[in-house]
Specification:
By secondary structure, the protein is of the alpha+beta class. The protein has nine helices and six strands, in the order H-H-E-H-E-H-H-H-E-E-H-E-E-H-H. The longest helix is centred in the last third of the chain and has 33 residues.
Length: 254
């Protein structure tokens, strides 16, 4: 049995180096998303991007507009800048699109995004890493009904909602031989037409949007972390005190 297991491990180890890291059609490695969940201006910009570019098709049915006060927005700012689908600040963030029409156009109803950053984590990284990579790897593909494709999610059924900001790009692949077959490996991006933002500005905008989606999945996450640190410090101090009391108590008994 040991020889069999050792043989299997060696076989896997010999096979892994030959795998291409970014083969076409198999997705790409996820980039690390910047953590901006403590950056209120970034979260506010992310909320603006979400309402303007995502809320037309995707709902956030478990988030109310008035909860955006937690990221530093006043109720009046929310009313003036973010209320397009309703006139009540206490309403949930529902998509403007009719679900039946969405299913006809895209083949499925666009998913709710309230918990999207928590549900997309995997072996490649966190849900935020996936979203950060996904929103930056769209490219034109005339063979698709939407006219777009994505390296992180090949054959995705949605168009590139942020294309006006990023512009149009196309991936550059390099042909490689693997096990007697030719595979295409992603190498770089080629800018076809510019967008309203520079590449650096676009990456920052996506970072803000993903940060907002990450915050929306658990608005109290930063409070939880802060409280957790203080709890651990309290337990550490209490452990020292308890240890000293225990030593003092048993000193005379011995």
């Amino acid at each position: 049995m040991k020889k069999l297991l050792l043989s299997a491990v060696l076989s896997i180890a010999a096979f892994l180096p030959a795998l291409p890291a970014h083969a076409a059609g198999e997705g790409v490695a996820w980039d690390k998303a910047p953590d901006v969940t403590n950056d209120l201006p970034a979260l506010q910009n992310g909320a603006k991007l979400f309402v303007n570019y995502c809320l037309g098709c995707h709902s956030a049915a478990y988030m109310r507009y008035n909860r955006l006060r937690d990221i530093g927005l006043s109720e009046q700012q929310i009313k003036d800048n973010l209320l397009f689908a309703t006139d009540k600040v206490g309403e949930t963030m529902k998509a403007a699109i009719d679900p039946k029409q969405a299913k006809e156009w895209f083949g499925a109803v666009p998913p709710d995004l309230t918990l999207i950053a928590r549900s997309r984590s995997g072996h490649g990284g966190t849900g935020a890493d996936y979203l950060y990579t996904f929103l930056r790897t769209f490219y034109r593909d005339d063979t698709k009904a939407t006219g777009w494709n994505n390296l992180a999610f090949p054959n995705v059924g949605m168009p590139h909602a942020l294309w006006q900001l990023q512009g149009e790009r196309e991936p550059v692949f390099e042909a490689m031989q693997q096990h007697g077959h030719e595979v295409k490996v992603f190498k770089a991006w080629k800018q076809v037409s510019p967008g309203a933002l520079t590449p650096v500005q676009y990456d920052q905008a996506v970072s803000d949007l993903v940060g907002f989606l990450q915050w929306m999945g658990e608005p109290e996450q930063n409070t939880r972390v802060r409280v957790g640190v203080w709890v651990l410090l309290f337990l550490l101090v209490f452990t020292v005190i308890a240890w000293r009391l225990n030593a003092a108590y048993w000193k005379d008994v011995r």
